[in-house]
Specification:
ATP binding, globular, binds adenosine-5'-diphosphate, 6-stranded mixed sheet, alpha/beta, nucleotide-binding
Length: about 220
């Protein structure tokens, strides 16, 4: 089974009102294990909506979402939340790290919430920080880190619970071009090391070209580029 299969998704906001917007109108996308797909679309095209539905943060009006062959649309909200926590990692344009906690703690906390013991959770956090080249920054709070370092910590946090699917919404969109390239390299090597399936939304066509496959979201459907 593919890691992610979404099929014929439709989603509208403000149903039946004059300001109704039909964002998804039959969107389908399949991502295999180890495959990294670039999702390219202008702002407002529905990328966040698609990623939130694929990542079980939101539900579609119709269509299917299957993760590793299991139809998520048939599960209860509670089950779906449990599957999301165990299976899906999210990265946003802004890091959303907890400001009162250190880099290490920000990566440890989701593991504790998922039932891990402290010692192995700290070891895993250090391994991840080391892989993205910022192990020496483990004890710093987000405010003491550069923008690129903050985003690297957010990548580690997203991978803390060993998800099989990574969904990233403009993961380097908030960084200057030089930093963006370096941080993107760090993300790609992390993704390649772990062999997970990923959908990475970006406006940057050079970054998109480095992924396995490029798709675009246009008029509510996903098309190969
Ligand atoms: P993108 O991530 O590509 O910028 P979004 O999925 O955030 O696109 O939004 C797609 C469209 O849906 C936009 O026109 C946006 O204004 C609208 N939209 C998104 N979320 C909501 C919401 N909760 N209520 C109403 N409209 C929304
Ligand atoms: P964007 O700016 O790309 O649309 P946001 O960070 O504003 O994304 O998050 C969009 C929605 O997803 C919000 O409703 C937020 O509460 C929810 N959200 C963000 N991160 C997580 C997370 N790690 N787990 C669960 N929900 C999240």
């Amino acid at each position: 089974d593919p890691t992610l299969m979404v099929a014929d998704l439709t989603k509208a906001y403000n149903h039946g009102k004059p300001n109704e917007v039909r964002v998804l109108q039959g969107a389908s996308l399949t991502v295999k294990r180890g495959e990294v797909v670039a999702l390219v679309a202008p702002s407002g095209a529905g990328k966040s909506t698609l990623l939130h539905i694929a990542g079980l943060l939101d539900t579609a009006d119709s269509g299917t979402v299957a993760i590793e062959g299991t139809d998520m649309t048939r599960l209860s909200d509670r089950r779906r939340t449990a599957v999301r926590r165990a299976t899906v990692g999210f990265i946003y344009q802004f890091h959303h790290l907890l400001p009162e906690f250190t880099a290490l703690e920000n990566i440890v906390l989701p593991q504790l919430a998922n039932g891990a013991a402290t010692k192995p959770a700290e070891e895993r956090a250090m391994t991840l920080l080391d892989r993205v080249g910022i192990a020496p920054r483990a004890g710093h709070r987000p405010a003491a880190l550069s923008g690129g370092e903050q985003q690297r910590v957010a990548f580690c946090r997203a991978l803390a619970n060993e998800p099989s699917l990574l969904l990233a919404d403009e993961p380097t969109g908030n960084l200057d071009p030089d930093t963006s390239d370096k941080v993107f390299d760090a993300l790609m090597s992390l993704v390649r090391d772990t062999g997970l399936a990923a959908v990475i939304a970006t406006h940057n066509l050079e970054l998109a070209a480095r992924m396995d496959r490029q798709v675009r979201l246009h008029a509510g459907v996903v098309e190969d580029l």
